[in-house]
Amino acid sequence: MLLCDIGNTFLHFYHKGKIWKEKPYALTKKKEGLPIYYISVNERFERCLLASHSYCINVNEHIELKTQYSGLGVDRKAACRAVDDGVIIDAGSAITIDVMQEGIHLGGYIMPGLESYKKMYADISRVLGRDIEPGVDLTQLPQNTSDAISFGVLKSIILMIKNTSRTKKLYFTGGDGKFFARFFEDAIYDNTLVFKGMQKALQKHI
Amino acid sequence: MLLCDIGNTFLHFYHKGKIWKEKPYALTKKKEGLPIYYISVNERFERCLLASHSYCINVNEHIELKTQYSGLGVDRKAACRAVDDGVIIDAGSAITIDVMQEGIHLGGYIMPGLESYKKMYADISRVLGRDIEPGVDLTQLPQNTSDAISFGVLKSIILMIKNTSRTKKLYFTGGDGKFFARFFEDAIYDNTLVFKGMQKALQKHI
């Protein structure tokens, strides 16, 4: 079984324990006859997959999660399905932070992803168009523009995660998940979280 | 004396205790012969002012501040000059947070402004293009997309300001300054902070 998670920047694939990403307009041809079970938050990129592969099955509706939240993205649902208790941080184009307790989703929120922040500062003023410096000292007040921006982005995301986590276990996933995980003790980084949740949900149906 | 602060969205004017803003390409004609003392962080908008008024004096270099920070915007310098002890939050196109102690600037950082956040979410995905809801409950985990975005933006900015302020007095200024001030007890909102600092600095020179 080949699994695929169609996001807002990449398509992520999972097959036999391997995970890889592909750009929507440069998809490689997958093995003939191997069905692709996919979830999607992006219709345009979904059409890219469908146009190039014959056996694609949209399983969005099979990813069920106990929650009061209306309009929860299917990728968030899948990642949350993989964790019964903890905070799930998916750091990609956007950063989503969700809380699970005894198999129930308690709610969550959305921050912009690192790339979006970078672009946003550049849009405000040419002077602010800087890279986010991963090594910026978050314990000292910044003394230049570059640090001032990196500090503003990273510390605000980290304070939010700390404020949400309290005593809960943290699970990081997504492109920048590994980077953020290192700011927290005992955090787990697992880039297959969405696929683990998909598998768990699909076992019931397929 | 007419004062002007040229920012990245508007030109703010100050005359005899009155303050108002104008768009760079729709400037009203000021009284003939009245000199305009201005500071500017935007060369393009500065040219708009110079093209339409004869007596304009750039006073950027007169706004001095004791600081180790390199590249501090002149508007931040001016606002900081107005406060000897406290945290200065200028919430405009960007949100700058600066700390003053005994007349010395200890450092500061930059977050995106509310409008930028809104635009940034919309750029990530059409689904995320929502208004920031000022009344969102910041004590409960959000249960829908709109709240999830407002919570992510507002709570992260507020947590950062709280983390910086500790026991210091908070001074808010800028277009969204009044809005943010209401989240903090005993906060001061003063939309003339930049001009007060300009006046203080200019008294030495003019």
From TrEMBL, chains A, B:
Q: Where is the signal peptide?
A: none
What does it catalyze?
(R)-pantothenate + ATP = (R)-4'-phosphopantothenate + ADP + H(+)
Q: What residues does ATP bind to?
A: 5-12, 93
Q: Which UniProt keywords apply?
A: ATP-binding, Coenzyme A biosynthesis, Cytoplasm, Kinase, Metal-binding, Nucleotide-binding, Potassium, Transferase
- Entry's localization field: Cytoplasm
Annotated InterPro entries:
ATPase_NBD, Type_III_PanK
Q: Quick one: which pathway?
A: Cofactor biosynthesis; coenzyme A biosynthesis; CoA from (R)-pantothenate: step 1/5
Q: How is the cofactor bound?
A: A monovalent cation. Ammonium or potassium.
EC number(s) given by UniProt? 2.7.1.33
| Gene Ontology, cellular component aspect | cytoplasm
- Where would you say this protein principally sits, based on its record? cytoplasm
Which Gene Ontology biological process is one annotated for this entry?
Answer: coenzyme A biosynthetic process
Residues at which K(+) binds: 90
Q: Which Gene3D superfamilies match?
A: 3.30.420.40
Cofactor(s) named in the record = K(+); NH4(+)
Q: Where does substrate bind?
A: 69, 73-76, 145
GO molecular function list: ATP binding; metal ion binding; pantothenate kinase activity
Active-site residue list? 75
| SUBUNIT field | Homodimer.
Q: NCBIfam families given for it?
A: baf, PRK13333.1
- Describe the function of this protein: Catalyzes the phosphorylation of pantothenate (Pan), the first step in CoA biosynthesis.
| Name of the protein described by the UniProt record | Type III pantothenate kinase
Native source species: Helicobacter japonicus
